[in-house]
């Protein structure tokens, strides 16, 4: 468990479900927000949130990071 981890480069190229498992294994209390590639987002910074951006094949296309 790595609650201080800020990025998950190993999740890029994986399915959304695989990425969620990787992230939750490091911090079970984190809130994961799943969004389609290019979706608009708010600019507020939250250390307890990770956004996962995916393509139409449900593959992670952007580096998931806290914020």
UniProtKB/TrEMBL annotation:
GO molecular function: serine-type endopeptidase inhibitor activity
Gene3D superfamilies: Trypsin Inhibitor V, subunit A
Gene Ontology biological process terms from the UniProt entry: response to wounding
Keywords in alphabetical order: Protease inhibitor, Serine protease inhibitor
Source taxon at top rank: Eukaryota
Pfam families (UniProt xref): potato_inhibit
PANTHER family for this protein: PROTEIN, PUTATIVE, EXPRESSED-RELATED, SUBTILISIN INHIBITOR 1
Family per record: Belongs to the protease inhibitor I13 (potato type I serine protease inhibitor) family.
Protein's name according to its UniProt entry: Uncharacterized protein
């Amino acid at each position: 468990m790595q609650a201080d981890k800020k990025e998950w480069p190993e999740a890029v190229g994986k399915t959304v479900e695989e990425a969620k498992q990787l992230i939750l294994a490091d911090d079970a209390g984190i809130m994961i927000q799943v969004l389609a590639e290019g979706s608009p987002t708010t600019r507020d910074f939250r250390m307890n949130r990770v956004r996962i951006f995916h393509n139409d094949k449900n593959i992670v296309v952007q580096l998931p990071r806290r914020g």
